[in-house]
């Protein structure tokens, strides 16, 4: 089966999409994910069409399908809290415009934390935010499954289902699974087909648009959300390989968001071991050399 594998890469105002594509190619990736600016703030540069067009040419030459490339919305916006409602909606609308200008189709969004408002109020805030931001633009917002840290919502498929049920533009909403978050929220990743069965019956596999592939530093149901390098955490190499190569996930982009090792990206070596289906026991040494 053809593998769609990549990682989180950088995007800066000078090289924009060209920088992201070139970084991905260095890792041996055929897809990628980036923030259009710093994840912890909402300052964003203007998209330069000249750079975008050159980047698209490089992508075509290297068989990277822009339809599978992902933008991640900054995690400081909190759709579950109505306190900054107008700001959230305005930012998301602008982000959808930027994503469309880049030709990217998938925008991953954390559903946010209800900060004491309660699950029902938080979910209705998320639905309101999505219905007020989504347009007929060709961009799908993918709700990420969360670890359930603090008052985080989206930590089980029932909550995700409620969110999707409330969204009017059903063809503009999707889901991004995150293996570390699923583990930390209580899903047993040693039987991923069972997880996919539950997802399919509650939400529908057609809504699954992306998967973040991360190992976890913590045990199942820890509600922690700390990512670990592939094969070095509690999920383990074999379980992650079984997920990555699961036939039901063919065509879905798989993105590594594993931690840097002493400020160096591990992705080239992690992608290598995924392609070889063999754990690299010298990952740390290889990354540092
Ligand atoms: Fe995320
Ligand atoms: Fe993630
Ligand atoms: Zn995470």
How would you describe the overall organization of this protein?
- The protein is an alpha/beta fold and 289 residues long.
- It is 38% helix and 13% strand.
- The protein contains 10 helices and 10 strands.
- An 8-stranded parallel beta barrel has the order 1-2-3-4-5-6-7-10. A two-stranded antiparallel ribbon has the order 8-9.
- It is globular and about 50 Å long.
- The model has no long low-confidence stretch (mean pLDDT 97).
- The protein binds fe (iii) ion (2 copies) and zinc ion.
- The site of one fe (iii) ion has 4 residues, from loops.
> Gap between N and C termini, in Å?
32 Å
The strand line-up of the biggest sheet is 1-2-3-4-5-6-7-10
Low-confidence stretches: none
Q: Helix coverage percent of residues?
A: 25-40%
Count the strands? 10
Number of helices: 10
Rounded mean pLDDT is: 97
Radius of gyration: 18 Å
Output the structural class.
alpha/beta
Q: Which hetero ligands occur in this complex? A: fe (iii) ion, zinc ion
Largest sheet: 8 strands, parallel, barrel
Write down the overall geometry. globular
Series of secondary-structure elements, N-terminal to C-terminal: EHEHEHEHEHEHHEEEHEHH
Beta-strand fraction estimate? 5-15%
């Amino acid at each position: 089966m053809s593998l769609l594998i990549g990682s989180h890469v950088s995007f800066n105002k000078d090289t924009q999409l060209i920088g992201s594509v070139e970084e991905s190619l260095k890792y041996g990736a055929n897809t990628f994910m980036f923030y259009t600016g710093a994840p912890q703030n909402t300052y964003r540069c203007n998209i330069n069409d000249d750079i975008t067009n050159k980047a698209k040419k490089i992508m075509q030459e290297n068989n990277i399908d822009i339809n599978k490339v992902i933008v991640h919305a900054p995690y400081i916006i909190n759709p579950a809290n109505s306190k900054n409602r107008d700001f959230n909606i305005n930012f998301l609308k602008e982000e959808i415009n930027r994503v469309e200008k880049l030709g990217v189709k998938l925008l991953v969004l954390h559903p946010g934390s209800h900060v004491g408002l309660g699950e029902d109020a938080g979910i209705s805030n998320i639905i309101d935010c999505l219905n007020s931001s989504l347009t007929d633009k060709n961009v799908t917002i993918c709700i990420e499954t969360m670890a359930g840290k603090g008052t985080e919502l989206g930590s089980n498929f029932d909550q995700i289902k409620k969110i999707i049920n409330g969204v009017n533009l059903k063809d503009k909403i999707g889901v991004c699974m995150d293996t570390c978050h699923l583990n930390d929220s209580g899903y047993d990743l040693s039987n991923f087909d069972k997880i996919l069965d539950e997802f399919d019956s509650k939400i529908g596999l057609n809504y699954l648009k992306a998967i973040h592939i991360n190992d976890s530093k913590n045990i199942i149901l820890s509600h922690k959300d700390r990512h670990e390098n592939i094969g070095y955490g509690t999920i383990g190499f074999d379980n992650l390989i079984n997920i990555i190569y699961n036939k039901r996930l063919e065509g879905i982009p798989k993105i590594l968001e594993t931690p840097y090792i002493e400020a160096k990206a591990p992705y080239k070596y992690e992608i290598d071991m995924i392609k070889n289906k063999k754990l690299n026991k010298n990952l740390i040494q290889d990354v540092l050399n």
